[in-house]
Amino acid sequence: MNAPILCYVTDRESLPLASGGSPDRIGALLERIERAVRGGVDWIQIREKDLEGRTLFDLTAKAMAVCAAARSAEKQAQILVNDRLDVAWAARSAGVHLGESSLPVGEVVRWRNLAGRTDFLVGASSHSLEGAVQAASAGADYIFFGPVFATPSKAAFGPPQGLQKLGQVCRAVSIPVLAIGGITEKNAVACFDGGAAGIAAIRLFQEAQDLAGLLRQIRS
Q1: Where are the alpha helices (DSSP H) in 5-46?
Q2: CATH assignment of 5-219, given 3.40.50.720, 3.90.226.10, 3.20.20.70, 3.40.50.11090?
Q3: Interior angle at CA 3, CA 136 and CA 112, nearest 5
Q4: Long-range CB contact pairs, 113-120, < 8 A, 24+
Q5: Alpha helices in the chain (DSSP H)
Q6: Are 40 and 217 in contact (CB under 8 A)?
Q7: Per residue in 87-144, pLDDT tens?
């Protein structure tokens, strides 16, 4: 198996304010993004759905600058933007992550290809086997599937799908599948064993006291 893809999904509202930071927690989030980048995450999905376009663009640009400053000789963390294709494209981020009610995956892929930016990732969230297959058939580059385990942040998407369904999805598509929803250090290995190419999480990465150590442990 290739090294797993580890994706930190942001949620600034669950963060304490940065020292002397703004009340919207942007400063605190950028601190956490820098820590995640230096800790060794592969992807960071900017998932701040309430921000207006200009504010989200500025946050994305700053996050990309953090990634560039922390670039290692081997790799650089990639910034993805949740839902907002316009912001992801204008900021020249690594890609956009689409929800099931976002723009159609196939149309975004077609538009990307016409624009000649084939390196721009188009990912999709899926909460069913059928949805995963449909997203893959439409040309998605990767899929987030879940919630695999119970988690408050994904309660709106129904009961946990479980490892068996995760395995079914991984076998049904040929693109990377990242498990999301209730992921912990202890159950991450079970996700990889089920065929997941990686994991995506908010609290696991955002609240870790020793993020670099956590990432080493998961990758081992």
Answers
A1: 26-39
A2: 3.20.20.70
A3: 35
A4: 119/94, 120/88, 120/89, 120/94, 120/95, 120/96
A5: 26-39, 53-69, 85-90, 105-115, 129-137, 162-172, 185-193, 203-206, 211-219
A6: no
A7: 999 999 999 999 999 999 999 999 999 999 999 999 999 999 999 999 999 999 999 9
- Convert the pLDDT of each residue in 43-82 to its tens digit: 999 999 999 999 999 999 999 999 988 765 456 899 999 9
**Cα torsion 7, 11, 16, 18: sign:** positive
Residue with tokens 């504010």: 55
3-state secondary structure of 180: strand
- Max Cα distance, the chain (Å): 49
Give the tokens for residue 31: 């601190």
Residue 125's H or E segment, with its range, is strand 121-126
| Tokens encoding 122 | 């188009």
What residue ranges do the domains of the chain occupy?
5-219
| Orientation of helix 211-219 relative to helix 185-193, angle to 10° | 30
Which amino acid is residue 115, in one-letter code? A
Structure tokens at 159: 């009961």
Taking the C-alpha atoms of residue 218 and residue 42, their distance in angstroms, rounded to an integer, is: 13
